[in-house]
Amino acid sequence: MEKLSESQLTEHLAGLPGWEVDKETIVKSFRFKDFKEAFSVMTRIAFECEAQNHHPNWENVYNSLTIRLNTHDVGGITLKDITLAKTIETIVNR
Q1: Residue 1: which of 57, 76, 53, 66 has the closest Cα?
Q2: Which of 12, 28, 48, 71 has the fewest CB atoms within 10 Å of its CB?
Q3: Region 21-45: what's the mean pLDDT?
Q4: Domain membership flag for residue 35
């Protein structure tokens, strides 16, 4: 797996509203009705992360969730991160 070029990353992020590049990660914050809803979404995301064998760095405070994705093995952003971000979007928007 190779790091995405800047132009590839720009192209992929065009289809992922709200996701931004922060150094060698892509990041997005979400807000939910309450902690229970945030934790429920995190649980669903966790199962998909296991299935994809790709795990986020995330932070949860009450009803907010911030997710950072990068591929540690290559020290940057790859298609694995884009794929997981798309999966996360599907889960959050259900």
Answers
A1: 76
A2: 48
A3: 97
A4: yes
